[in-house]
Amino acid sequence: MVKSEVYITRTASYFPNEPISNDEMEDYLGLINEQASKSRRIVLRNNGIKNRYYALQKDGTPTHTNAEMVALSIRKMLPTVEELKSIDLLTCGTSSPDQLMPSHAVMVHGWLPETNNIEVVSPSGVCASGMHALKYAYMSIALGDKKKAVTAGSERLSRILRSDQFNLEVKRLNELESNSILAFEKDFLRWMLSDGAGTFLLENKPNTEGISLKIEWMEAYSFANETEPCMYMASDKLEDGTLKSYMDYSPQELTEQSILSIKQDVKLLGENIVKLGFTKLKQSFIDRNLKGTDIDWFLPHMSSHFFEDKIYAALVENGMEITKEHWFTNLAEQGNVGAGSIYQMVDGLFHSGKLQKGQKVLLAVPESSRFSYVYGLLTVC
Questions:
Q1: Are 199 and 315 contained in the same domain?
Q2: What are the distances in angstroms from CA 365 to CA 129, 130, 368?
Q3: At which of 212, 238, 254 does a domain end?
Q4: Cys bridge to 376: 38, 47, 218, 324, which one at CB 3.0-4.6 A?
């Protein structure tokens, strides 16, 4: 039984260093085999991203950890010791924790020594992990278990996108007189991803001044029971579609085959990412008697603007058209921050001056790793 309404009362984002343009990317990520990427311009033309952020210097020296960026976003949102001490739950989602153990969220907690001994939760996953973190916080407050929760989504993938992660593999291919071009499934993602963090404060009552965002509902779906992995890391995909874990490779194989890199089956992505998720959203609309015209702001997490028209077509096909003037995205300016993107979109809209009380905000986060989706509806109050 729901005991309390739940409101997003504050939001913040943190981006490391200065924005990096398309022309500067290889200055930071480096050249593989001393050659410019042949896929870079094609991918950038399709994804529409103009700037992104990297938590590293041009020589590859890291400037921030993932956990540190989340903590800096939290401090931006809650700048006083008293506010930090008021938190009674911390949930943090990411696909790129700084280590396998300890968990990501406890490392964030370690960057916030002013806080108390509180519950800390680290949902695993990829883009949807940030929404799972939000849902856990939402449910905890709705049940009356917590009063003030901080939730976050973040990524720091730039270091594993650098050329030195692939040079040995390319050298080995050259020695075997094979195709020395890095497989597109690995090179593709080098031009898509950005570093950063986004955070929300959730409470059981709205702000007394200014706006808040009431969480009406959240729903999540996985299609892993009927699809094979599409995006994966620290593993490799076998011919039967299963993944072979990094734990089952020798140290030499890990390096020579860049097993720890992030990879994506682009064909599988194009076939499924839009089609699967929006059929489920249609059922959510039917169950709640919602229409596309009820939505004032649509915030779709997209890895690329390539999917924008495909998403719009899927909305129309499923009878829930949301016209483009009601869409809000910051992908071009901030890049794809994975689990952090939806937080940063909400933060951008929250502080834009565009929101009016009574408006409905629809969140849509697809995750291509094995096709999971999380949706949520907010009301401006």
A1: no
A2: 10, 9, 10
A3: 212
A4: 218
Asked if 353 and 335 count as a contact pair (C-beta separation under 8 A), the reply is no
Q: Are residues 163 and 86 in the same domain?
A: yes
Q: What are the start-end ranges of the E strands in the chain?
A: 7-14, 20-21, 51-52, 89-94, 119-121, 148-155, 196-203, 213-222, 231-233, 235-237, 243-245, 262-264, 297-300, 360-367, 372-380
Res. 189 pLDDT band, cuts 50 70 90: confident
Count: domains in the chain? 2
Count other C-beta atoms under 10 Å from residue 125's C-beta: 21
Residue type, 337: V
Averaged pLDDT score across all residues of the chain: 92
The Cα–Cα gap between 346 and 343 comes to 5
pLDDT tens digits, residue range 43-101? 888 889 999 999 999 999 999 999 999 999 999 999 999 999 999 999 999 999 999 99
User: Among positive and negative, which fits the CA dihedral 94, 99, 101, 102?
Assistant: negative
Instruction: Tell me, yes or no, whether 104 and 159 share the same domain.
Output: yes
Domain boundary among 195, 212, 229: 212
**Do residue 276 and residue 167 come from a single domain?**
no
220 and 138 in a common domain: no
Q: Bridge-partner residues for 35, per DSSP?
A: 32
Does any domain span residue 1? no
Query: Do β-strands 297-300 and 360-367 pair in parallel, antiparallel, or remain unpaired?
Result: parallel
